[in-house]
Amino acid sequence: MTRASKIGRLNVILILVSLFLSLMLPFELFLFSYAVLGPLHYLTEINWLHQKNYFVKERRYIWILILFAIAITFLVLFKYLKLEAVFSNYLSSYFMLLFGVLLVSGLVFSIGLVLFKESKKIFLTLIFAFIFGLLFLKFFPFSFFIISIFLPTIIHVYFFTLLFMILGALKSYSVHDVFAIIILLFIPLFISYNPFLFVFHTSELVKDIFLETGFKNVIVSVNQILSDISISYFDFNSVVIIKIQTFIAFSYTYHYLNWFSKTSIIGWDRNISRPYLVFILILWLVSVALYVYSYKTGVIVLYFLSTLHVIVEFPLNIVSIREVFFSRNTFD
Fold first, then answer.
1. Residues of 270-302 as b/e, b for ≥16 C-beta within 10 angstroms?
2. 326, part of any domain
3. Going by C-beta distance under 8 Å and a sequence separation of 6 or more, which residues neighbour residue 219?
4. pLDDT of res. 4
5. CA–CA distance, 127 with 278 (Å, rounded to integer)
6. How far, in Å, CA of 137 to CA of 128, rounded?
7. What is the spatial distance between Cα 324 and Cα 105, in angstroms, rounded to a whole number?
8. In this structure, is residue 231 part of a structural domain?
9. Do residues 157 and 251 touch, judged by C-beta distance below 8 A?
């Protein structure tokens, strides 16, 4: 059995394990994965992307995407910490609209980073990206809402993971990879039509974390897309809420596990010096300790790192889309 086949078989197992755990503990599993697996994923992926020059033609312009991540972090924490009380409500609304514009513009700008090396073309792409983001907001407000909410969450952890798996299968020709993709595609349907719901006893601590961190907002947004019935009261025992959270918990958990399963394939652990590896592990342990001390504090302190790994991955997402749908160039 080839290495690719072994990884494909492992991913089938990881998908099934993630599904089982998410069905059993939809809220608790998400909190665990986000706090424990998440930070280690951010740190190792950012390091790997740096080694790969972020998959752009000219790495020195990656600082622009880093500025996007800094600005987005400021805007979100401004809202998250309820600092809008110091300013006007108008300014608060403006900040959140700018958050969405920055996300959409960052993704569009990444196309220029992937395609161009000349400074002039890159900065023209940056200007175009901002204009596109503003026009997208004006003419497609609902689509803009979907992208701004789901791009750094569901799209990142589920759809881009699926995209990477499809790209891997196209290169490996592994039956196990194809099987893993088919299972992953059917997971949302299985969760949606699953008649076997366990009896949940969500602790008050878990409920408080979901409410005070704003994690519930993604659930509400998913429901808004799928149903005409809005969630007026966030009931943790609601079948709809449980099913949506089950999918979210599965997506995040498998997203992280998939990354660690690909170590021998993409070699993200290569060229990491021992001192830097120790540094990563220390940061990871400190991050987990923050979440244990106060989950809300962990979310606030780690938000920039979480956002940064999403934003600087945009060029890789663009490269993957190009290779799956338009060409078959080398992924390395």
1. eebeeeeeeebeebbeebbebbeeebbebbbeb
2. no
3. 231, 234, 241, 244, 245, 248
4. 66
5. 40
6. 14
7. 23
8. yes
9. yes
- AA identity, residue 239: V
Task: Report helix, strand and coil shares of the chain as percent, to nearest 5.
Answer: 80, 0, 20
Q: What is the domain extent for residue 295? A: 3-321
* The token pair that represents 271 in the structure block: 């060229």
Q: Which two tokens stand for residue 183?
A: 């299972």
- Rounded (10°) CA dihedral 13, 182, 145, 236: -50
Domains in the chain, number: 1
Shortest CA distance to 185 belongs to which of 19, 25, 30, 3?
19
Q: pTM value? A: 0.91
Residues in the chain: 332
Q: What six digits make up the tokens of 214?
A: 């704003």
Domain-located, residue 94: yes
Residue 115 lies in a domain: yes
Amino acid, single-letter form, for residue 273:
S
On whether the CB atoms of residues 9 and 245 are closer than 8 A, the answer is: no
- Which helix (H) or strand (E) segment holds residue 223: the answer is helix 216-226
- Cα gap 157→184, rounded to integer Å: 12
Taking the CA atoms of the chain, what radius of gyration do you get in angstroms?
20
Residue given tokens 């949302």 in the structure block:
188
Q: Report mean pLDDT in 10-residue bins for the chain, 332 residues.
A: 76 95 94 97 94 92 95 84 60 74 94 94 95 88 80 94 91 85 95 73 88 86 72 76 93 96 72 84 96 94 96 96 76 46
- Closest C-alpha to 41, from 313, 322, 317: 313
Distance CA 109, CA 320 (A): 16
